[in-house]
Amino acid sequence: xxxxxxxxxxxxxxxxxxxxxxxxxxxxxxxxxxxxxxxxxxxxxxxxxxxxxxxxxxxxxxxxxxxxxxxxxxxxxxxxxxxxxxxxxxxxxxxxxxxxxxxxxxxxxxxxxxxxxxxxxxxxxxxxxxxxxxxxxxxxxxxxxxxxxxxxxxxxxxxxxxxxxxxxxxxxxxxxxxxxxxxxxxxxxxxxxxxxxxxxxxxxxxxxxxxxxxxxxxxxxxxxxxxxxxxxxxxxxxxxxxxxxxxxxxxxxxxxxxxxxxxxxxxx
Length: 268
Known about the structure:
CATH architecture of the largest domain: Alpha Horseshoe
Strand content: under 5%
Oligomer: single chain
CATH class of the largest domain: Mainly Alpha
CATH superfamily of the largest domain: Tetratricopeptide repeat domain
Order of helices and strands: HHHHHHHHHHHHH
Distance between the termini: 52 Å
Low-confidence stretches: 8-13
């Protein structure tokens, strides 16, 4: 332990000189490649390898990026304890880096809140979404996709807690924001399906039928947007949306979406 301020400054300078940043863009490109094939074991190996490299290179920013990705990965694979372990580490790194109140903290909060929601921890998720929302909405020139994603995911948690009006208000904002985003049609399709679920939960299927079916038709049209790249992310969204179409009896539409996803996965 350093005994004086001078010792502390010298130690910090020495650590800074030893930092070996991990190649974040290369890591993300490879991660996208694995995800396009839904190769979750390869995703985990990739993230763990580079996490070890970031730690060995004293690269806290790299560690934070990797921990954020690990939260999302373990959410998708349903590994609650691993997701929470990475979430705790991400929050610790935000404090170490002095990122409290920053977009970096808000992004981590959204990732963690989304994971909490997927594990049914709605009361834990909502305050994290609220904190992220406050940061995002006061940040000038924030990429609209970040805000749209927040509104969509926070809307799910509000609906799960029975706050239907709050949920629909967030979906309104998501639709507005994502209308100006490249490939935003995909997120808007997801929002339409989220809205349908919210109506069904609040009003019931019989009372909400006409509105629900209109939203399903709108989602189908958005997924058919001609200029959307038919890539791994498109396949992921099709797979994600198919069960909703099944749930409401749109069986042919659901099978068509699964077929689109399979075709993309097979060629990648």
